[in-house]
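Hello K.,

You asked for the raw outputs rather than the summary table, so here they are, unedited. I folded two proteins back to back in the same session to keep the settings identical. This is the first:
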Amino acid sequence: MERKQEQQKIVFLEGEKVILRPLNKATDLQNCVRWMNDPEVLQFLSRVNPVSFMEEEEWFDNLANRHDDILLAIETKEGRFIGVLGLHNIDRVNRTAIHGISIGEKDYWGKGYGTDAGMVLLNFAFNSLNLRKVRSSVIALNKRSLNYHLKCGYKEIGRAREQFFTNGSYWDEILLGVFKEEWEKTRQKMADYADDVETLQDGYYERCVESPSLESSGPKIKSKSW
């Protein structure tokens, strides 16, 4: 009796918490329609009207024709599809692009999945596509998204005042950008922090308590202000 060959998971890019893979209409359409009709998700997007299955199907069908865009599914290591991110308007002359991300599964908000996905995507943008700058923007109401961008190394470069109307008020559009050099510094800070946490887990500070003289020669725990 022949053994069924297990279907191999498609992994385009991989981080610590997530994988990024091509979108699949057959498996992803239902969730995308659900997210695009969720008021808690929709309030942070420049859209008001409901999204039908027909409209979302058309969006999926047109992905292959968007040669200046790269859109990817965000999936946890356990196989849960939780959101979408991408690079848009990729300019291969000026070496720039515009970044967008949406985590539709609200149980995964604020837990580092977006930051992990964003850092992996920027690595691809800078070191595979050879881009030099990536831009983005957020509605000022969306504090979580703003923090996500800042953690990934983006800097505020300007504001379009009262650009979007949502939740009964007008909100600024915060314009953001990150150069490769800025992202590399952020990535190094993250790596240094991870190394220090690993040292802590290995019992360094327990040894410091037993022998205070070790403290001066050991690693310094850096602030997680990034």
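The second followed immediately with the same parameters:
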Amino acid sequence: MKRKTGLKRITLALLVVSLAVLAALPALAAGTVRMSSTIGPIDAGIVPALVEAYGKKTGTKVTFEGAGTGATLEKAKTGNFDIVMVHARSLEDQFIADGFGVDRRDIMYNDFVILGPDSDPAGIKGMKSAPAALTRIAIMGSPFVTRGDMSGTHVKELEVWGAAHIKPEGDWYVTYSLGKLGNAATTTFANRRQAYVLMDRATYLTMKNSIRLVPLVEKDPILLNLIAVIRVNPAKFQGLNADAAVAFADWLESEEAQLIIKEFGVKKYGEPLFFPNSRSWNAKHGK
């Protein structure tokens, strides 16, 4: 009789433990944010820095995968991510218009520069207009490397070519076959070829000691690089961690996160890699 009672107690205890574990699983899942991000901010280190700070503050785990913005948005269309970080407004707007994304928020920005060899065979150094510089590169037939992968960087490059009213083609216009690996890989390839390339400033700053390419054209307003987050539409997919994604997006806009962005890389590289750009930051500090 005592043996049966003991077995019943053990069985009951195991059942209670099992139920407790099962009850905890949704809560654990709800606390994880899955982010698909453009590669540049990951390679530069700002995404890992923000994710680490948020995890320490909230206990929430944010996982992230990198791809070009076009591929990032395509991946998000599977419903396997809660939020995206991207930097190609035309692709972002289409993603939202197609019902896949909601709640776009500006988070940070930097800019693009046109890099090239110090010898500058096309003679573009110091030009104030990026479209005019690309026009000169095309006329001279100087080697130019493109990612060619519909990433945010490639989309920006095409925007500048469009402003120049030029469709780039010819032996001088080289598509990097592994452009999908990101800006760092593309810059390394352009450096080997001693070719011109349009690249974000953060990539240049993190690589400048290991490459011979130098900034030749910069600070044209068309080269502005806006980086935003967009939540994947929870009405489109089941199982998204919508509340956790909202909380993460809210924090990215906060003073705490914006200060991390403002100060990131300054001590190491001598200047910011990114600049704060949330609505609340701009309202308080100006843009």
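The longest strand covers residues 101-116.

Happy to rerun anything if the numbers look odd on your end.

Regards,
P.
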